[in-house]
Here is the input.
Amino acid sequence: MTVLEFDGTTNANVPELLSPPAFPVLGHLPAIRRDPLHYVANLVAEYGDVIPLKLGPHRVLMVNHPDHIKHVLQDNFRNYRKSDFYEAVRPLLGDGIIMSDGEEWLSQRRTMVPAFQGVHLTRIGKAMTDAIADMLDRWQGDQLSGRPFDITAEMMKVTLDALVRSLFGRRSGTQKEAFFDAITVVLQRSEKRVWALANLPLSIPTPSNVKFVAALRELEAIVWSMIEQRRENPAAGEDLLSMLMAAYDLGGSEADLNMLRDQVMSMLLAGHETTANALNWTWYLLSKNPGIERRVREEVRGALGDRTPEFADLPKLSYTKMVFEEAMRLYPPVWTMSRAALEPDRLGDHEVEPGTTVMLCPYAVQRNPRYWPNPEGFDPERFTPEAKKARPRYAYFPFAGGARVCLGQHFATMEAQLLIAMVMQRCQLDLVPGQTIEPQPMITLRPKDKVMMVASPADGQHQIAA
Ligand code: HEM
Here is the structure.
């Protein structure tokens, strides 16, 4: 059994845990801040399955072995709460489902799960295809004239629209731009706060805090206006918003109302930017791999022809799903997550002390050549049922796993299948040549700059069908 000491000493008989060189006080923080993605991917190659790191004041264990990841997320998940790194987003998410732990979390999860199941799926699918059709109509006049456009911005808008229509029963309309700008500011600031050594309280009016708080208030105003509209028209929908309002709004206490706000905000944040980034990377990879793009197009043509897809069509779009899964392997939207140990625990031979932060990095594990031959290559065949069965379950975990698995994983996958199919039916997307596209690890894995694409009519049509 190894007792972890952060001066690098270990006791005998078990393989020693190696830690990369570190600075005094700051530890590995400067290195991880400089180039997070390369740093974490290289660490796995050089230092193995369990790597002690020191990120400023935090003692961190970076855990890369699928069995250990399973242990933390699934088998012994009750021993792990969300780590202190999540505190950077508390001003945004309050005490909502992403931030909560224990019994409080369980009760919140039980309130929300039904909105993603059963009869709701068909209605959610329809709300999604309506949002996607509106996007394609927008593209018709504009993008099909050959004018380059930023696919990331388009994916952000359509995923927000689909989310708001399907879970909150209304169009995002004119508030889309305002929401989009505000959430970008909030996420950028939150990201800085995650990796900072210390953060000044938001009440201190530094320029950065002032900007952050203004964007936060803007988001809150949008959330309250959605709640207000539903109060005025309670019959508008039997959706997530109505379930949340039944749970929190009826009491009317300040605590309940704050919780309602926190939950709506949490769902907007969890469900929008993640899916948008996954789709963005999917289009990027498809445009780089025309043979795979052609196969998706053939699947869509065979399964649907020109018909708008619906929930019942999803099993027919299995290759499309594999493409989306492979895109999330290379570019997992949640590229890292972390937990803090409550009680002593073991990961294989290694002891975990209470308070240790365990860092799990889909980006690094999903590029580990031990589980992924030719890890940089884009190959959807890795996701055939046989290939999946042959790999450890937690060699791939873009949606985390266990009891706290992403609540929207099927929602996001359905949205991706519907969106890819509908775009393919109407047009072809090509990357504008000469761009260097690089990922930027914010809270989600975004592209660093715009990703400019041109759309042309599918199958050599000169006009897309309206
Ligand atoms: C491709 C898109 C998505 C990805 C990759 C993704 C990934 C994740 C991951 C990794 C977590 C766990 C985070 C952690 O525990 O630290 C998570 C949690 C969560 N996600 Fe997603 N997500 C996506 C889309 C969505 C959507 C569309 C929704 C809602 C409509 C959603 C709702 C949630 C919620 C509520 C949680 C917290 C669950 C809990 O703690 O019980 N996500 N997601």
